[in-house]
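Dear Dr. H.,

I hope your travels went smoothly. While you were away I took the liberty of generating a structure for the chain from your last submission, since the lab meeting agenda had it listed for discussion. I wanted you to have the full record in hand beforehand rather than looking at slides cold. The sequence, exactly as received, is reproduced here:
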Amino acid sequence: MSALEIGAPLIPFALPGTDGKVHSTEDYQDKRALAVIFTCNHCPYAQAWEGRLIQLQQEYAERGVQFLLINPNDATKYPDDSFESMVRRAAEKRYPFPYLRDEDQSVARAYGASRTPEIFLFDQDRVLRYHGAPDDNYEDPAKVREPYFRNALEAVLAGRTPEPAKTPPVGCTIKWK
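The corresponding predicted structure, in token form, is as follows:
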């Protein structure tokens, strides 16, 4: 299973969120950029980058950027990734973005996602412009040299091609059923 290629169109979806609503990609047509981010509760990489993703969403929301976080993990094998646990985590961390459940893993499979976290950034025309990791140092935000996702956001908002447009996703593997 290979991931979407740069230049591919957004694959639409509608998934239940921790806020009790179903969120569809169509709900965000007015946004200048849409980031589909596969993540989960239990992965140490996802946890390490979580605060940075919250900060970026807060910072870029007023510029027309929307993040949609999706947890595709098998909750039978990983109870920390159950919908109930997702609801608790989103509340505890005050997520400024929808946190969605991909129970049948169909969205993760369609995107070719393999890791948590893994970012797919689409421009206003919903063309994939960046795919990969948030930055080059999950362990220490102070030691980040390459803020890939931030740079990609800036490029997309300026109508430029991100450089790099693709980085290897770093994190835990998605826990498939």
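Two observations you may find useful: The chain has a mean pLDDT of 97. The longest helix spans residues 44-60.

With kind regards,
E. W.
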